[in-house]
Amino acid sequence: MNFDFSEEQVMLRDSVARYVQDDYDWDTRRAIAATDQAMKAENWQTFAELGWLSVPFDEAHGGFGGGPVDVMVMMEEFGKGLVLEPYFATVILFGGLIQKGSNQTLKDNLIPSIIDGSCQGAYAYVERQSRFVMNDVTTTSVAQGSDRIINGEKVVVFNATNANYFVVSARSSGEQWSEEGLSLFLVPADAEGIELVSYRLMDGQVVANVRFNNVSVPATNALCEEGKAWPLMQAIAEDAILALSAEAVGVMGQLNAKTVEYTKTREQFGVKISVFQALQHRMVDTFMSYEQTKSLLYRAVCDVEADKPDRRESLLALKIMIDKAGKHIYSEAIQLHGGMGITDELDIGHYAKRLMMIGTTFGDSMHHMGEFRELRYAS
Predict the structure, then answer these.
(1) Residue 1 resides in a domain
(2) Which residues have a Cβ under 8 Å from the Cβ of 30 and sit 6 or more positions away?
(3) pTM confidence score
């Protein structure tokens, strides 16, 4: 199988890599993380000017028309810099839902605004009781003439404080855990009846719990046929796993590189600790974990791009490996750096925290292991 990137993909990767190296150093990132929004508007506009916000969108709406590989090369470079700007929340989740939905009016109105940087969004799908089960939805949508009245609460909503719009999962019919009866609605962030409580996650992101109290939206704001949103929710979860996994691979690569570099400067007993064979073995083990994860990422991306029947198995295996390998790599990186490895001043601990968050976003290894068993061994 040919894993070579196209000329366009190499140029895309190099442009992001140069930006991260030249304009997103560790001090810059720390300063951005300290702001209330945990992002910089000027950076977001730069993303738009460089064309990065257009990558996964169709050419018909002014997009680049890129696929999973294009997103992968970008997200891996974002991971290397621990980029905080809401590319995942706005472009992958919110924009992806709009594009994959069947509402042509929403596509025509919103995608160009996402591409030019004037519109940000958030996907509100997690509830307090649902954990990783996306179809566990108690938020309701009730018809009232040509409008829909939404009531309920969503938690850990990425980019909620910066969003112009939410895409909200709500139950139009059926039982709490049913895959039938789920709908997705576009809700303006300034709609009457929305209450928002923001807080900061350990990786520096600002998220929010969002309560919808009799929020009224037109029925025409449904992203697809009402009650039939489950396939769309599954599809965007697959995109999310690929994007997060690519970011995680970038983080893992940086942790390994920085750890090797540190061991070449740290002295113990009058010699660099990099000469100790026991430590060399540990660093080789983390490198192997990184390479295995990267190989699984490439396989999953190829399976998704080719729309193979077993692509979901590849995605589940990938997310399991991201969690497992991530824990191995960040634990060793912290241990080999010593106590300073977890201090706020050093970036190692922050890379570790980002891997922890990625490991539990859209399901942890135990959740996906259960899904994998059901899928592989279902009678």
Answers:
(1) no
(2) none
(3) 0.96
